[in-house]
Amino acid sequence: MANRRVNALTKSKIPKPTLVTRNRTAISREHDNIQREKPLKEISNEEILQNKETNLETTSKNSSVPTWKTVKPNIACRASQDKDNPLRKVRERLERQESKIEQVELTTKSYEQQQLQYQQQMDSLMKNIKNIKDRISETERTIENLEDELFLATNELETIQQNKKEQERQLDELKVEKSVVQGQIQLEEAKIQSVHSRIEEQKVILNNIYEEQLSLQKQIQLKKSETQDELYNVEELTTKEGNLQKEIAKLKKQKDEYLMLLSEQECEREKIIQELDKLEADCRKQQKEIHETEDRKSAIEKEIADLQFQEESYPQRKQHLEKEVDQLRKEISAVEETINDCRVKLSLKENEYKTKEDALETLRNSSERTLFTEKKNLSSIQSQLDEAKERNEQLQQAIKKKDRDAEYFDSSVEQQHTLLVSLRNKLSTLELRLEEERNVHLIEQQKLCTLQERTHRQQTIIDEMKEQRLKNGTIHDDLQRKVYEMRPNMQVFCKLDDCESVEEPTVDSLQKLILERQNSEVLARKVRDSEELSSCIFPFDQVFDTNISNSQIFRHCIAFVDQLWKERNVCIFGYSTHTHQRKMFFDMNAGLSFLTLLHLLESINENSGSRLVLVVEFFRVWKQELEDMFSSSTTDANGTVQSENRQDDTNKENALTAIEISNEMQLQDSIVSRLDFQKVQSQLGHYVFRIRVKDKSLHSSNTQSSITYVHLQMPDMYNSETLQTNETDENFFSFLQLLTQLANREKSVFSRSSTCILTNKKFECLNDNPKLLSILQVPKTTRNIQNTLQLLNLGQKLSCCEVVQGKSTGHR
Questions:
Q1: Residue 10 CB partners (closer than 8 Å, separation 6+)
Q2: Is the four-CA dihedral 551, 553, 555, 557 of positive or negative sign?
Q3: What is the pLDDT of residues 679-718, one digit of tens each?
Q4: Which whole-number Å values give the CA distances from 134 to 13, 404, 601, in the listed order?
Q5: d(C-alpha 571, C-alpha 708), whole Å
Q6: Whose CA is closest to 543, among 343, 786, 771, 341?
Q7: 700-726 burial by CB neighbour count: b if 16+ within 10 A, else e?
């Protein structure tokens, strides 16, 4: 457009050129364009297109000129040099306009940057507004929570008032009861006074009767004196005697009547005394009840005083709480008003922000329009730029005001936060006070709950006792069933210990114990001289199935053995190996060999001053029938071998012999020779010996203590299978500790078996309290107990098992 205006001005000033001048102008223009390529490059693309259009128009106009008509270039240059001055002015104007356009573009860029900054500030302000709204919602929530807590506190106060009313009712009831009791006491006192008055009246009557008797006796004495004076007058005396006899008969009758009355009065008096005693006892009981009621009354009065004090303090507390609640409500209302004001301010500011955003959008549209018009009209651009600067300044001032308002709002929010913190602290103090009151109330409730808990505990204890009885019955039935199932696979080895007997043993004191099966239980019958004396139940205490593991069995064994060590009787049984090694096993699978016995002899001789002697008793036991077990013997103090149980020649092998051993050679010779003889004679027999310690100076049987070893020879069996028990007395516990120490020193002998306790039960038989124990050790290599029992040939029925028992010598 500018080029067209320039062309129009030049046309109006310059005369119409000829064809030569036209060619010259075109050439000059091209030359000038060539010289001024650099400034033309800075012009915008639109201007270049406009210049191209103008050049095309001029070329289209000049296209009518024929090509054969040419002018020399020197002439054209001169004409162009003459006309350079107006073109330079136009160029300068164009350059000025271009610089202005560049300035406008820079201002528009800065304006866009400012708009971006304004948008960022608006976003930050919106975020701050959201945060403020969140804080306001949090404050509202806290206010709601405080209102809920206040409601709960009021409810608790109402409950406290109700409890107080209930306590007042209870006090009224107690007062009524007190008045009733006082009326009863007054009635009983009136009855007692009436009884006392009756007693006094009867006492007065008795005194009068006694005085009349004394007066009668005086009259009789006077009459007797008169009769003595008048003996001389016989006639008078005879007449008087008749009269006197009549009077005496009357007096006797009166005396009998008086005596009857006295007896009746005495009976009544005794009855009255009994009634008085009863009344006194009742009075004492009533006095006790009165004292108890007075104590209760005093306690209740104390509680009433406490409650009255609390009642007096409750309204004050309630007034303080109400005042604080009112203050809190006022503060909350003030906070709500400030929050509402803030909300109003926020709404106003949001409206302002919206209007300003609309203004900014209108400014954007107007700026685009102004830019489009500035490209057309450069003159109007400067005025619009000034207006834009003024508007920018106004916007900056508005933004500063908004920043100030935001800072003020933040400060107000901080103040509200501090107020909320103070309110929370006050509420915490109120909560603490309420908790203290709750604790007081809970203490009163706990006093009531303790009585209920005691009754509940007693009921639970009774229920537990009933459940335990039922469980014990079921366990007993289960054990009996298991025994009945396992009976074909068990062999019972038992020993009855008559602990109460003190008599010396004799040959005739042997008794036989027969075990029989009857209904799912095992019966023990004690027979003497082929006569049945009594029978008793012989149950098992612990029975293991075939599925149980050896480790579990061993744990049970440890528990039983510990109990037996603490009590009086424990026995040790042992199998010999198929190599006939003479081994015994003692307490927790530790070996006990002949070396330990020798150490035992040495320690006894050193510690006791040669007062104690080891007594070893031997006897023979066959496989199917255990005979002559554990019968005690009488021994010499000189170390000689004495035989007891002298029987027929057929039973000489089974006779019990006792040897006192005081040195090492006696022990080796006696035990080894006996075992060798047993081994040579039969491998199916069992060999039993008992070691006991005897005091030479004391001959009573109560002082003897013993440890019993049963050595059962089982050929072709495992090396370390044992059937073992141990027996001792409480007074002999140190001796057993010594044995355990000596057994632990024997490192060459170890047992590879686990222990299974079958029975450990006290049962009564002929007023005795014996104890039964049977321990079976199973090798760890075997997985099933039943297989080992079959290998050991112990699968005999209980009805075939017989044990012969002799009376012991007191406590062992």
A1: 86
A2: negative
A3: 444 444 444 445 555 555 554 444 344 444 433 333 332 3
A4: 76, 21, 96
A5: 6
A6: 786
A7: ebebbbbbbbbbbbbeebbbbbbbbbb
What φ, ψ does residue 376 adopt, rounded to 5°?
-85, -40
Query: Which residue, chain included where needed, has tokens 């506190």?
Result: 153
> What pLDDT is attached to residue 384?
67
CA angle at residue 516 from 513 to 518, to 5 degrees?
145
Q: Which two tokens stand for residue 27?
A: 């050439």
Distance CA 252, CA 189 (A): 43
Chain segment 519-573, per-residue pLDDT in tens: 333 343 433 433 443 333 333 344 444 455 545 555 554 444 444 333 333 333 3
Three-class SS state of 22: helix
Strands (E), 549-621: 572-576, 584-586, 590-592, 612-621
DSSP assignment of 448-477 equals HHHHHHHHHHHHHHHHHHHHHHHHHHHHHH
Q: Which residues contact residue 493 at a Cβ distance below 8 angstroms, ignoring those fewer than 6 apart?
A: 573, 626, 710, 723, 774, 803
**The pairing of beta strand 771-779 with beta strand 753-762:** antiparallel
Residue 739, pLDDT above cutoff 60: no
- Tokens 């018009």 correspond to 373
The reply to whether the predicted model has a pTM over 0.70 is: no
Assess contact for 123 and 400: CB atoms under 8 A. Answer: no
* Residue 582 near residue 595, CB atoms below 8 Å: no
Q: What is the distance between the alpha carbons of residues 765 and 768, in angstroms, rounded to a whole number?
A: 5
Contact in structure between 611 and 697 (CB atoms under 8 Å)? yes
Give me the residues paired with residue 536 across strands: 524
Nearest to 780 by CA among 741, 751, 757: 751
Collapsing DSSP to helix, strand or coil, 505 comes out as coil
Average pLDDT over residues 159-173: 79
* Residue count (the chain): 812
Rounded to an integer, what distance in angstroms lies between the CA atom of residue 175 and that of residue 805? Answer: 78
Q: Is the pLDDT of residue 301 over 50?
A: yes
> DSSP string of 175-191?
HHHHHHHHHHHHHHHHH
CA–CA distance, 711 with 626 (Å, rounded to integer)? 12
Structure confidence by residue, pLDDT tens digits, 762-785: 222 222 322 222 333 333 333 333
Least confident of 111-125, 285-299, 358-372: 358-372
**Rounded Cα–Cα distance for residues 649 and 647 (Å):** 7
Residue 534 bridge partners (DSSP): 526
Token digits for 538?
């012989």
Count of Cβ atoms closer than 10 Å to residue 801 Cβ: 20
Half-sphere exposure of residue 682, counting CA atoms within 13 Å on the CB side? 11
Give the distance, in angstroms, between the CA of residue 153 and the centroid of all CA atoms in the same chain: 32
> What is the Cα 110 distance to its own chain's centre?
74
Structure tokens at 163: 């409890």
What distance in Å separates the CA atoms of residue 779 and residue 785, rounded to the nearest whole number?
9
Contact present, 56 and 50 (Cβ < 8 Å):
no
User: pLDDT exceeding 90 applies to what percent of the chain?
Assistant: 0
Taking only the tens place, the pLDDT of each residue in 386-420 is 777 787 788 778 788 877 877 777 777 787 778 87
Lookup: tokens for 194: 């009436």
> DSSP code of 637?
S
Write the single-letter amino acid at 149. Answer: E
